[in-house]
Amino acid sequence: MNVEKERKKMGQALNSKSSHPKNTKKEQQLLNYWDRKFHDANSYYTAYLEPLVQRRYDRYYGTNKLYKSDGSVNRKGEPTPTVNNIVFEMIETQINNVIPAPKVTPRDYENQYLGRGLEGYLKMEMDRLNSQIDNDLAERETYIQGTVFYKTAWDSSQSTPKTDGEMDLEVYPIDSVRIQPGVDKMEDMEYIFTIELVSREKLATLYNMKIDDIPEHENYEDLAELITVYYFNDKGILSKFGWVKDIVIFNEESYLFRKFKHCTKCDEKVGYDVHECPVCYGTNFKFKASETETLKEDLIGFDPNPDGSPKFDDNGQVISDVVAKAGEEIKYYPINQLPFVVRRNISKKNSIYGISDADVLEENQAFMNKITTKITENLLKAGSVITKPKNVRIKNNDRTLKIANVNTRTEADMIAVKNLQANIQQDDIWVSRLYNMGRNSLGITDSFQGKRDPTAESGKAKEFAARQTGGRLQSKQRMKDAAYSNLYELMFKYLLAFCDEKRSFSKEDATGKVVEGHFYRYEFLETHPDTGELVYNDRFLFDVDNASQLSTDREALWKETMNNFKTGTFGDPTDPRTVKLYWNTMRQLGYPLADKTLNNLEEREDELPMELQRAIMQNPEILQQLQQML
Question: What is the per-residue pLDDT across 490-500, written as a single tens digit (0 to 9) for each?
Fold first, then answer.
């Protein structure tokens, strides 16, 4: 693509007369600047990625197109339908719907309880966000396109009587994102674009605009193509700017700063629903970003035990101290990174994009399509030929019995049927080889697919073969784990910045009892050793709990737990406490009717053993003796 030509077209479009309201001078300058940047990023995408993106989707969904080496479609060649779609099969084989659970490790030992509380709350957040659907989309996009993007945000509109705002998580496919050209790491990126189709009515409502002022998309009625750029301004503050065609929709220079309503005359801070200033009675207001907040009440801190329980003094009083007093100003937690996390399929040198499985299998799929097309044609063209004397006539109709008049036995012997059948044995063998070569490229075996594996006859051998395949695919799993680790860290930062109230959640302790956990951002405040200023403690390491992925094979876990119980790993199998521990573990693993079994065991805890009950029934005087002893 000719970048200068595209810029000229873009400039003409921006300078042309429009019936829409004009942008302010500052908005127009920003629009001119970022629209040029967007065309540079889009030109890179169009030249290098767009042909690949469509080809990958074609291979995954199945196509009869033939592609040239430059990525264009070969329209002269005969179409080759996809009969055996190895790309689809291999990608679907690898889909893993398990969402890695967060694992939070504090750098300071005394913050163990904060790490556990944060870990539990992040698990609850992933359940609330319905992340299974997002993960299912991200899994396929990662294998098909090699890359997918996650975006986190704080949605203030999601409020309840107890909470103000909620975390939001979105998955962006590769064709909805335009990155800064030449940058191969997200942390080094200075800006990033997103492209979304958004309802014009929604934009008008959110940004107080008239719906007719928002340009409509050429192909979709009532929708607009919103281009958004996330960038760092001259002060290094994360900002957001969005536009539709030549109309600026929003310009948020301090995107993640809290914004409060102030009187334009006396600068008094007022509530969002106030329409008249209580100081100067002014009626004009503006929103100003604030880096600090004023505490409404005293913050009480205490020195906890590692399990989070408070310490008590000799008088039984909780050892506590006032961390900050009401009316004191403290800084909000600043977020200084783009709200995106990238997940790659297979790492690629000097590129933010990963390697696609569809690219790896493309040649195998193309050759398989050609050969299977040839096989199909040969089978369809096969048939029978009748030989007969030249002067003998046989009627060409559908009757079962046909009469041919012959003069001699020799003429009768000349009437015969010759079957024409193509030999497809070599073609069939080559298709199987292409299939196996493509599968071997990804490290997938029959055992991993659940097929019969002639090289692994026993159950143990099959398990070993599946584990070997899992080992070859560990790199892809590690890339997924790394993406979720970065995602959890980013979610934590948003919670520190925006989650004002204490958030409670339910969790199970070691005994299986449901207890209350909580996340409260003010608990992360501590005094800076050098400046004495209150700052947020974000010294936590984020990873994923690989053990959580074992829960996908519940039957194997049930079997392993039962074996551990029988062998005495839990304790004496005849001890009622051991039995209760075993069934509590089975309940946590989702074993059917484990809850009822546990309830029954708890009801029988106060009952005497059956042997003792029988002895008392046979000798009532024993009960009288026991009562006298008590």
Answer: 999 999 999 98
